[in-house]
Structure formats: C-alpha cells, structure tokens
C-alpha cells in the first residue's frame, strides 16, 4: 500500500518511514501542507492512506484535512498531541477517518492504518436490498450514502455513515461495542473503542439529536427511533 506521511520533523518521519517500510508500506514523505496537497494530484496518486500530523509549518493540519477531503475520499488519520474529545470531534467533522494521539504505540498506529484502509462491502449495509431507512425526521439514503434531517442534508464522514446505518438497521436493538467495531472498522483490536466513542459523540452533535443513539452502559449502543 502507498502511504502519504505528512510530517514536518525529518527525524520523526525517517524513523516512522523505516517502520512502515518494514511492514510493507511504500511511504511518500511530505514536509508541509502544501507538499501534501501537491502529492495528492492527480487522483490521489494511488495512495491508500494519508497519515497527517497537525503541527505543520505552513498550514494548520485541520485546514489541510479539509482541503484533502474536498478533493478525494482517501482515508485520513490525524496524528497529534491534542487528546481532548473536542479536538477529535473537530477533526472527524472535517472528514478525518481516525485520530491517533502522541505518543502512540507503533502497533496501535499500524492497526489503525489497516482498519481505515479496508474499503469493503459497506456501501449497502441494510438487509433486504432496502435503498433508504426512515427514522422520524432522519432519512438515510444507502446507495448515495446521504443522510438528511427534516430535509436538510447532514455531511458525515464515511465511518460516521457506516456506524449510523448499522444501528439504523435494527432500531431499539443493542449492538455490542465489539460487534460495532468488527462491522464498521473491520477489526477486533480493542484500542478502537475510544474511536467509537468519538464517532458516536460526533454523530449526536451533527444530527443535533443527542437522544438518537443511546449508550447502554457496559454493553454498547442502540438507536432510539424518534417519533414522527
């Protein structure tokens, strides 16, 4: 897999590139936001994942992520020392697929890279060939992967859509955390649990319906279908 590493620290980039190369990745190193954007032309240049450090010399990493997402759907993993939930949600709202906090374990990073790069049969997660799901004011268009609330389109990331569509298949049914992680992230890696929490928080905020996804303490989550 080709991977674009966006990191302004040459020493960090060299060490990480060596590790990634040992695990079969073909790494291209960009030292700034502008270099990263140029490397993604044309048509993402065949990259499978972008590993994006937020502390760049020329542009804020969040800004770079937004620009990347406008031109391509390539998976983006943000890497930063900012560990608060608000920063994570902001990154996800801009289109990031995952968020890794420094200092991180190399095994953790590799697991996350492999998880976001799996683009498999999530385009139509609903059974029975349904094309749309209706949950009160929420409409989920499966073929186009579009979600709207009261007719207004809500911009979701790929994983946010996958998560919402999975829960919406069976409103009221509790999905265990392990099951969600397995079906949406295609991994059984335990460290993905924090990412799940952040995606749930982001969905609640974007849909402006905090009660739509209920936390079942110690088990997982379920979707509570709104009235109307």
Order of helices and strands: EHEHEHEHEHEEEEHEHHEE
Separate helix tally: 8
**Total domain units:** 2
Summarize the main sheet.
Answer: 5 strands, parallel
Number of strands: 12
Note the overall shape.
globular
CATH-scheme architecture of the largest domain: 3-Layer(aba) Sandwich
Low-confidence stretches: 119-129
- Which CATH top level class of the largest domain fits? Alpha Beta
Nearest-integer average pLDDT: 84
Write out the strand line-up for the largest beta sheet, numbering strands in chain order: 2-1-3-4-5
Structural class: alpha/beta
CATH 4th-level superfamily of the largest domain: Response regulator
User: Strand-residue fraction?
Assistant: 15-25%
The helicity comes to: 25-40%
Ends distance:
46 Å
Which fold name fills CATH's third level, the topology of the largest domain? Rossmann fold
Rg over alpha carbons: 18 Å
Could you explain how this protein is built, in words?
It is a single chain. With 228 residues, the protein is of the alpha/beta class. It has two domains: 2-117, Rossmann fold (3-Layer(aba) Sandwich), CATH 3.40.50.2300; 132-223, Winged helix-like DNA-binding domain superfamily/Winged helix DNA-binding domain (Arc Repressor Mutant, subunit A). Helices cover 38% and strands 21% of the residues. The chain has eight helices and twelve strands. It has helices at residues 10-22, 33-39, 61-71, 85-93, 106-117, 158-169, 177-184, 193-207, and strands spanning 2-6, 26-30, 49-53, 76-80, 98-101, 132-135, 138-141, 146-149, 152-154, 175-176, 213-216, 220-223. The strands form three sheets. Strands 2-1-3-4-5 form a five-stranded parallel sheet, sandwiched between helices. It has a four-stranded antiparallel sheet with strand order 6-7-8-9, covered by helices on one side. Strand 7 and strand 8 (146-149) form a beta hairpin. The termini are far apart. Residues 119-129 have low confidence and may be disordered. It comes from Streptomyces cellostaticus. Residues 130-225 form the OmpR/PhoB-type domain. InterPro entries: CheY-like_superfamily, OmpR/PhoB-type_DNA-bd, Sig_transdc_resp-reg_receiver, WalR-like, WH-like_DNA-bd_sf. The modification 4-aspartylphosphate is found at residue 53. Keywords: DNA-binding, Phosphoprotein, Transcription, Transcription regulation, Two-component regulatory system.
